[in-house]
């Protein structure tokens, strides 16, 4: 699951994770984070997620990071937006009023890039990564985020032996291991999703739940 894997997925348009609709958990649970209009929200591993538009429509500034230039270009083209592009260290930064998308590797971001954010929307980002990378991802988040930052995290819980990720199963115990040492962890909701996502049943799953967490950085 290295960078080449994701570049290839985007090149071949194998992007079953992409959703046209705004995420239901985002819409339902975002108010629990109490993010004030005008504050900045970080969307890591953002793909061409339309949730960015939803967040902007709520009055937030958004910062995103995405490896694939195919995804970043598609985000702007498909939503009729045009951005100013500039180069900043390891990133091409695409910018317009209220939005800054870093095209490059999440692991190259520093506190100066995203330390000002009030909240994080993590959907299909942590769960896109294999175990060793998840530990590195959470460790990097810990370096990037200031105390008080809230994270709305959507994770999956399913028998990992029944299907190869991504998306990977990241059950409550692992969320605790990754975030419990530096965040307050609160499980907001659990939803059975196999009936709504029959392709996962076809991939061999007997059970799959989506779990929504509010994490608050200590
Ligand atoms: C499963 S997709 C989810 C995209 C988005 N969060 C959504 O909800 O549609 C995971 C995304 O992470 C991106 N990605 C993987 N590794 C990355 C890295 N190291 N830095 C930045 N983006 C990365 C991939 O290109 C892919 O678009």
CATH level 4 superfamily? Vaccinia Virus protein VP39
Q: Average pLDDT, to the nearest integer?
A: 97
Overall shape? globular
**For the largest beta sheet, what order do the strands appear in spatially?**
3-4-5-2-1-6-7-9-8
What can be said about the biggest beta sheet? 9 strands, mixed
Please trace the helix and strand order, writing H or E for each element. HHEHEHEEEHEHEHEHE
Compute the number of helices. Answer: 8
Low-confidence region ranges: none
The first-to-last residue Cα distance is: 31 Å
Structural account:
The protein is an alpha/beta fold and 218 residues long. The protein has one domain: Rossmann fold, CATH 3.40.50. Helices cover 29% and strands 27% of the residues. It has helices at 3-11, 24-29, 51-57, 69-78, 111-114, 131-144, 172-179, 198-202; strands at 40-43, 61-66, 84-88, 91-96, 99-103, 119-123, 150-157, 183-192, 209-217. Strands 3-4-5-2-1-6-7-9-8 form a nine-stranded mixed beta sheet, sandwiched between helices. Helix 3 (51-57) links the parallel strand 1 (40-43) and strand 2 (61-66). The chain is globular and about 45 Å long. The mean pLDDT is 97. Bound molecules: S-adenosylmethionine. This is Thiopurine S-methyltransferase. GO terms for molecular function: thiopurine S-methyltransferase activity. Keywords: Cytoplasm, Methyltransferase, S-adenosyl-L-methionine, Transferase. It comes from Methylomonas subterranea.
């Amino acid at each position: 699951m290295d960078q080449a894997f994701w570049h290839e997925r985007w090149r071949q348009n194998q992007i079953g994770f992409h959703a046209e609709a705004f995420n239901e958990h985002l819409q339902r649970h975002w108010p629990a984070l109490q993010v004030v209009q005008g504050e900045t929200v970080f969307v890591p591993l953002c793909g061409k997620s339309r949730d960015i538009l939803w967040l902007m429509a709520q009055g937030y500034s958004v910062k995103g990071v995405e490896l694939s230039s195919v995804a970043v270009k598609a985000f702007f083209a498909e939503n009729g937006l045009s951005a100013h592009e500039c180069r900043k260290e390891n990133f091409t930064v695409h910018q317009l009023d209220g939005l800054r998308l870093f095209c490059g590797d999440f692991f190259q971001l520093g506190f100066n890039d995203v330390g000002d954010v009030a909240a994080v929307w993590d959907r299909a980002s942590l769960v896109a990564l294999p175990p060793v990378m998840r530990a590195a991802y959470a460790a990097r988040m810990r370096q990037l985020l200031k105390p008080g930052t809230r994270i709305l995290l959507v994770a999956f819980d399913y028998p990992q032996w029944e299907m190869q990720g991504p998306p990977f199963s990241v059950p409550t115990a692992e969320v605790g291991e990754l975030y419990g040492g530096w965040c307050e962890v609160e499980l907001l909701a659990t939803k059975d999703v196999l009936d709504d996502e029959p392709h996962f049943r076809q991939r061999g799953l007997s059970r799959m739940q989506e779990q929504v967490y509010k994490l608050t950085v200590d």
